Amino acid sequence: MNNGTKYENNKELQEEVNRLRSENEALSGQLKRLIKVENRLYQYQQELDARLGEYQKLYELNRTFSSNIDMDDIFRHAIGFVINGLEYERAVIFKRSEESGNYELGCLDGYYEPAQQRRVAGVKIAADEPMISLLLQGWRDYLIYSETEQDLPLGGYAKRFLMDDFLIYPIGPFAGTPALLVIGNTARNRKLYRRISGKKGELLGVGNLAGLLSSTMENRIANSQMLKAINQERIAEAKYHGIFEHAVEGIFQLDRDGRLVSANPAMAQLFGYDSPEGLIGSVTDFISERCPDKRQRDVLRRHMLAADRLTNFEVRLARRDGSRLWALLNARIVRDSQGDFVCLDGFVTDITVRKESERELQEAREFLDKIINSIADPIFVKDKQYRWVLLNDACCNLFMRKRKDLLGKTDFELFNQAEASSFRKSDMMVLLSGKEHVNEGEFTDPAGMVHDIITKKALYRDSKGGRFIVGIIRDVTEIRKTGEALRKSEEMLTSVLDNFPGGVFWKDTRLIYLGCNRNFAQGAGLAASAEIVGRSDYDLPWGESEADSYRADDRQVMESRIPKLNIIETQLQADGRTVWFDTSKVPLYDSTGAVFGVLGISSDITERKIAEESLAKAREDLVRQEKLAILGRLSGSVSHELRNPLGIINNAVYLLKLMNPDATDKTREYLDIIKHEIDNSMRIITDLLDFARNKPPRTSSVSVSSLIETGMGKWSFPDSVQVRCDIAEDLPLLRINPQQIEQVLQNLVINAVQAMPEGGSLHVTAQLVQGSGFQVQGSDVEQRTTNLEPNGDFMEISVSDTGVGIAPEDISRLFQPLFTTKPKGIGLGLVVCKNLVEGNGGRIEVFSEPGKGTCFSLLLPVERDDD
Amino acid sequence: MTTKAGVGYSTSRNPAEAGREAARKALLQAGIKVPDLVLVYATIGYDQQSLIDAIREETSRAPLCGCSGEGIITGNYINESNFAVSVMVIRSGQLRFHVTHAGKRPDSYDSGKALAGQLMPQIAEDSFACFVFPDGLAFNFDRFKAGYESIAVTREMPPLFGGLSSDNCSLSSTYQYFNGEVMIGGTSCFLISGAGSVAWAINHGCVPVGTRHIITKSRSNRIYEIDGIPALELLSDYLEEGWRENWNKATLNLCLGFSSPERIRDDYGDFIIRYLISKNDRDGSVCIQSDAPEGAELWIVRRDQELICRGSELLTDQFRQRIDGRKPKFILHFDCVGRGKLVFREQERLDLLNGIQDRIGVHIPWIGFYTYGEIGPVCGVNSSHNFTAVLVAVC
């Protein structure tokens, strides 16, 4: 190869290399473009797949919507599509509340925490919120809020929806906007989901959904309204058909020939047919065949010829079996343009029952009239204009006028001015007060006779609220005359009773006084006899035990029907006196013979009783004086005879004790007993002697304190008895026989100690009682001193114990000779005390309460300046 | 007792509801109540902890392992949305499972070493496979392998299989599941021992574009310069506008192919594909999931749909051949993100999957996910892959 060839070869080679390089570069460039195109292709593929997938899901969603009528279910599918098809993180549908107008939660998805769900469920969007208004008024197709698009202040909604980027779409027809669709993402998961963007391509999916939802909703609403309309039409049709089929009234149509064209089941039933067809088939001329009354047939035919309607026409019709029924016929008569009869559409109501009721009502009204007219007392009714609207025959008779002349008239048209005014006044009271009213009055009949009448009136309200005066009149003219005679008779009886010297009374079976005469009333402290009516014995001044006794007698008389005569009883009178009555009681019988009460007649026998008691006391005193005289004579000699031997025995006992200091306990005990009995016997003897002795005492001036202290020093007291002396200072001297009063005090102290066998307290006091000055405290001072020397001062010496006390029935006999409550007493101790105290110009008193103790008080004269 | 396995999935948006639904379906399909092992693959839209808690509750707190994926794969079903979870439950009288994790360690070497340390006490004569699920955003397989194998010089370690957790190209966080824990930046793992074995097949579908290039500056798995110019500058010619902002999506169709070692070339093909997991705009560098030594030859490669489809058929044939008549108890499927919706339309993906499953067996419990990197041994060497599909049958 030469250089030229080599060169040429190299040149070719070089060219080839260059060409190859050029191709390589071109190929390389194409490859790079290929890779880029491929990359783009792959991206398009992905987008296409995503878009196709989305459309596929949207298609399926549309099918779901189409087959679903429940909007809530459709909403749930819609937000499911947002999450799973469009791949947004969260979606919510808010529905407009019909009540509040606000948008409230319909359904949600993409909130997986319960707290988040609760929070969003609580969101309410007001339709008048400014941003929402933009949507609802059509100013915006949607609202968007994202990290790059925030042209409206929607940040507040982000917190409410728990979304950082979101879109709000109105759903449904423009008017009303029944729902809002909210879709969005949180910032944290923004990368994982389809981004919220206002770019056209990005909004395609959600826009499609919003459109689909809106059109579905509109369709549903339209369908719903259409269904509603169809349904209402069906309901109306069914209702009218139902009315025709189930109406209680008969409905029918007659053609121009009088044939029944149609009839409902009720019509058939009215005429005794099982079906409308049966009735229609049987009638060729309804009026002729079914209306038996010629007059009514004529009326019907006249209407068919001339009238447009027939209203409330009562007609008798014939049933299939020939029986009659009363019917109320209402009909519309249809005429053509020439006014010729075309048909009659009628309604028939069976009023047989009503007609029967009306007949019965008429009978009842007549019956009532007869009853009212058979009542002997005049009865009338006036309306609120005071016009007579109802009167019975007795009323017409009383007024001596015909009913027609009275009805519609007022009292002023019938009676004189004075009488009519009186009646009107009474009527007005009834009308205004609504209360029953009775008035007495008189009226002059047309014959000039004046009638005394008593009218009882009451208000009656009818069901419509009308007010009427219902009255019944009693003509008491004759009764009044009879009553006057009766009154005079009663006055006579009352006079007799009041002049009866004793008491007369009568009671009912409940022992309630029905009456008494004046004497009885005075005793009961009543101003008039009539005041006793209605009272019982417990309401009158007598004591409860007396009332019990009277009532027991009353009952006995009424139950036994045997009079009880000459009951001697006391009665405490109103003036404080106790009066003795001789009472006789007899049962009272009514006209049937039944006992209806008791009558008592009592005579005052107090003076007689006092005389009897004085006589008995005088007899008793005489006997006692006799006994005392004998006792006095015996006691003087017997006492002297006994005192000497007792003194010897007493000395002997003393010597035995002295000579036998070592005597056994038994011996000493027996000696003590002997000594004790000697003392008792000596005291009895002393009492007998004192009783028998009736000489005036020799008095001297004695200090009270020395008198009591001397006695207390001599007397012995058991340990169980506590003794206390309360003697006031600066007491005046007594003018008494000190030995006698000391004896009295000794007796009282011994009695007091013996009254306290279980022990107790003995209290001796002395105080001045000023007779005229009432200076000593105590309400009984005056009474206690009146029996003593008038205006004198006295010393009161009291001996009180806390012993067994004295029975009340024994108190009055304490100072009677030979009365004793002690087993070993002879009943002279207190008699002697009383004699000695009274002999010293004083008095002895006793106050005792069983179980609490006894107090004996001596009222003794003090020394006076002139003594 | 034989081995019972079942798979369930859910696409509910509610994490608790989704977890319960998927677990319930899996238990129902397996016919068991308490499993020995629970495998979970889920996408990242869920609150991960709520999801795992619900699954744990439903599966009686049985040992659980898994990770987040770009999408889930089960029998006749693929879902690459942000809300999909699949659960496989296994109960076996023949197999034993041990679940563990490597903790959160920045250096993949440390992770591999720590994991081997965790597994070592559990590895027995009959241990036959180890499945790992590292964080796909911070993983260097070569470093991991070195660490893993560094501790096992005295005994043979079971082969590594698995996939790198992914996050639907958001490149923010991927998750690894270990019992009740949800980890970020960790590696979860389960070991299978017992009377069983594994069979697997791996295939990719990329073709080189243009001429050979040489790495002129690199460090570990970061490539600074190719042919003396910044790596990003070289690659930018192949990328569309906006690639800086959407790196993950922009580079899914563009990878680097390295010559495969002679010993695996017959089985695996001429190139080992590496996905560009990240870039650095300041120094113009890019990162891959294995070491990239200076001087290494590389080719720009792109995915090829036809090749992927043909590769699937080859994969299936290879798989069936390796199963050799045994009946798989269950199959795990790790497919690259770049072989999913980024390349294929939905129906195409499903057809592809159905084609594989129809040929292998439609009734075999099948679970898998779209990964940021696949792991499976090639010619006895633990290897990581990109743009591949790895099928592993436990027989």
Radius of gyration of chain A: 67 Å
C-alpha Rg of chain B, in Å? 20 Å
Any idea what the shape of chain A is? flat
Q: Tell me the structural class of chain B.
A: alpha+beta
- Total strands of chain B: the figure is 26
Q: Which ranges of chain B are low-confidence, i.e. pLDDT below 50, for 5 or more consecutive residues?
A: none
The total of helices of chain A stands at: 24
The average pLDDT score of chain B comes to: 90
Assign the structural class of chain A, choosing from mainly alpha, mainly beta, alpha/beta, alpha+beta, or little secondary structure: alpha+beta
Number of helices of chain B: 9
Helix-residue proportion of chain B = 25-40%
Q: What's the overall geometry of chain B?
A: globular
| Contiguous uncertain segments of 5+ residues of chain A | 772-787
Strand content of chain B: 35-45%
| Biggest interface and residues each | A-B, 26 and 34 residues
Q: Taking strands numbered 1, 2, ... along the chain, how are they ordered across the largest sheet of chain A?
A: 3-2-1-6-5-4
Describe what you observe in this structure.
The complex is a heterodimer of chains A (867) and B (395). Chain A has 24 helices and 28 strands. Chain A has a 6-stranded antiparallel sheet, with helices on both faces. In chain A, strands 8-7-11-10-9 form a 5-stranded antiparallel sheet, sandwiched between helices. In chain A, strand 27 (843-849) and strand 28 form a beta hairpin. The longest helix of chain A has 64 residues, at 3-66. Chain B has 395 residues and is of the alpha+beta class. Chain B has 9 helices and 26 strands. In chain B, strand 8, helix 4 and strand 9 (160-163) form a beta-alpha-beta unit. The longest helix of chain B is centred in the C-terminal third of the chain and has 19 residues, at 305-323. The model of chain B has no long low-confidence stretch (mean pLDDT 90). The chains are: A alpha+beta (867), B alpha+beta (395). Chain A binds chain B through residues 24, 28, 31-32, 35-36, 38-40, 42-43, 45-46, 48-49, 53, 83-84, 87, 109-110, 112, 189, 191-193, and chain B through 11, 13-17, 44-45, 47, 50, 81-82, 168, 170, 172, 209-211, 237-240, 249-250, 252-254, 302, 341-346.
